[in-house]
Automatic annotation (TrEMBL):
One of its GO terms (molecular function) is methyltransferase activity. The keyword GTP-binding does not apply. InterPro entries: Methyltranfer_dom, SAM-dependent_MTases_sf. Residues 165-309 form the Methyltransferase domain. Residues 61-80, 117-138 are annotated as: Disordered. The keyword Nucleus does not apply. One of its GO terms (biological process) is methylation. This is SAM-dependent methyltransferase.
Length: 417
């Protein structure tokens, strides 16, 4: 580890151990020298009955793990100090540390050097030390957004009948926040400016709950300039959503059209497609690829297309037990559809995670494909072979493959052979 990097990490350590001034810290990315144990880690101090603790939330590819570490006496060994030192030893590529008066950013270059930037705040922040994770919200219940969308009453209290929708919004914002922040930190997504705001499109937006939530969170909490467009086939939705945008003062526009044909100009950088039915999700993913969108978040709904193909085609040996019973065949079709979508997006040059959107008790449609464009399309190799073998075994033609021209590419390869 180079001397400049050691000095930079030492500066971060002093801020991380300041239990009075630290507001929040995030470690993410990786160094060229190795991969950290966690994909992302968030740190903050909380006040418990036993005293102040450092709360560390560590994210793997599937879920978050939270642990609290006692602070102890100043300049004395403590669980909090041990936790900070262990995280600083991990080869994270980025550290972003927010204190009440300053913002600190450390980025490790490909050569292992440290680039450190510190900026002063025009106004001091207040550090929240509440520890009730169940009540810690990305957007508070009394935010005007939720009153406008009908999720809360006039006093800002959540309506019992709208709890599932509120939970869905919260979980979506957590995934959106992680994905956008990481994409910006790693250089896959440009940092937006007032002159060139982040361009977001929500394909099949419906009543635009998540469209407005995304705008509200990114603009008001993350302080990112955002221009968002919602697309839906219903003129009624456009009129309703445009009126809501006007009352909220949101930089949001709405157009009428199908996911496949709607005119969106300039091309968006973040594409959302949440619960688009059946192959409409494939159309949304194909449009994102055609736009070259750096970030895509898609939560599929029903999966009729592949399920119908499975019913028509003979089941390959020895997998008859997977399709013999209707309910198992439908569930398998769901899994197979999203696995093929993830593979096709990887072939298109995206890094893809398939994660849980919300818990199954809130909605049975709880899978989300999170894709970040990291490179050029893949023309061969293991990824291509894996995909080709899978569709050949089951005799499938995924709709997304047709839209991306991948089925034609395979036909050409077979003809050349």
């Amino acid at each position: 580890m180079s001397e400049p990097l050691l000095r930079g990490l030492a500066r971060m350590r002093s801020h991380l151990l300041d239990s009075d001034a630290l507001v929040r810290a995030v470690a993410s990315g990786r160094q060229k020298s190795g991969t950290p144990q966690w994909r992302r880690v968030e740190l903050r101090y909380v006040d418990l009955k036993a005293g102040r603790h450092l709360q560390v939330t560590s994210y793997d590819e599937q879920q978050a793990h939270t642990a609290n570490h006692a602070v102890g006496e100043p300049r004395q060994p403590s669980p909090a100090r041990d936790a900070v030192d262990a995280l600083l030893d991990e080869p994270f590529g980025n550290w972003h540390v927010e204190t009440t008066t300053q913002s600190h950013q450390l980025r490790v270059t490909k050569k292992g050097e440290a680039l450190v930037h510190t900026s002063d705040r025009s106004e001091a922040l207040e550090a929240s030390r509440g520890h009730d994770r169940g009540k810690e919200r990305l957007l508070p219940e009394d935010d005007p957004l939720f009153r406008e969308l009908g999720l809360t009453d006039a006093q800002g209290r959540l309506k019992p009948s709208r709890q599932a929708k509120y939970r869905q919004v919260e979980e979506f914002l957590r995934l959106l926040d992680t994905t956008v922040v990481e994409a910006v930190e790693k250089g896959h997504l440009r940092r937006p400016t007032e002159a060139e705001p982040l361009r977001v499109v929500d394909l099949g937006c419906g009543n635009a709950y998540l469209t407005f939530a995304a705008h509200r969170y990114l603009s008001h909490v993350r302080s990112l300039p955002v221009a968002i467009t919602g697309v839906d086939v219903k003129e009624q939705s456009r009129e309703h959503n445009s009126a809501v945008a006007g009352r909220l003062g949101a930089d949001a526009s709405f157009v009428v059209g199908t996911i496949a044909d709607a005119q969106v100009d300039p091309a968006p950088e973040v594409v959302l497609a949440l619960h688009a039915c059946d192959t409409a999700t494939d159309e949304a993913l194909a449009r994102a690829v055609a736009w070259g969108a750096p970030v895509v978040l898609a939560a599929p709904c029903c999966h009729h297309d592949v399920a119908a193909q499975l019913r028509r085609a003979p089941t390959p040996s020895p997998y008859a037990a997977l399709t013999r019973h209707g309910i198992l065949r439908e569930r398998f079709a769901d899994t197979l559809t999203d696995a093929l979508r993830a593979s096709l997006m990887r072939l298109a040059g995206y890094k893809v995670d398939v994660v849980q959107f919300v818990e199954s008790q809130h909605t049975p449609r709880n899978t989300l494909l999170r894709a970040t464009r990291t490179g050029s399309p893949v023309r061969g190799g293991t990824l291509r072979t894996e995909y080709d073998d899978l569709v050949a075994t089951w005799g499938l033609t995924p709709r997304l493959a047709v839209l991306l021209g991948q089925d034609q590419q395979q036909d050409q390869q077979d003809a050349g052979a």
